[in-house]
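Weekly structure sync, notes
Attendees: PL (lead), two postdocs, one rotation student
Agenda item 3: pending single-chain targets
PL asked that the sequence for the first pending target be pasted directly into the notes so everyone works from the same version. It is reproduced below exactly as submitted, 114 residues in total.
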Amino acid sequence: MAAKGSEGTAGVVASSSSLPATQEGSHARKYTALCIKSREAREKEDEVILARVATVRDREERLAAIVTDLRKMEAQRRAAGAHPTDAELAAYVILRESADAALEGLPTLFGPME
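Predicted structure, written out during the meeting:
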């Protein structure tokens, strides 16, 4: 005779802290649902990261094209013996600031056109 709990099949007394099977099942379902939600949250986070990487790649490609054009212009000016114009200097500053912002994941002046 057990004062608390019930006897098992081998005469072992189960403690009163054991969960009934229905409660165990309920906890298992909650845990499974939590795992699924956690996995879904990770998948959404991964999608956001991948989209951000793609955006950074697009920015890098645009910035690389601008850098190439500016280097060609600089080479032409040097060949002609001319100094850079104010517009070229401004373009250099904007390009540098945009490149820094792109590397930090911040918006740039060369963001997607809408």
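Discussion points:
- The chain is about 70% helix and 0% strand.
- The two ends are 79 Å apart (CA to CA).
Action: rotation student to compare against the earlier draft before next sync.
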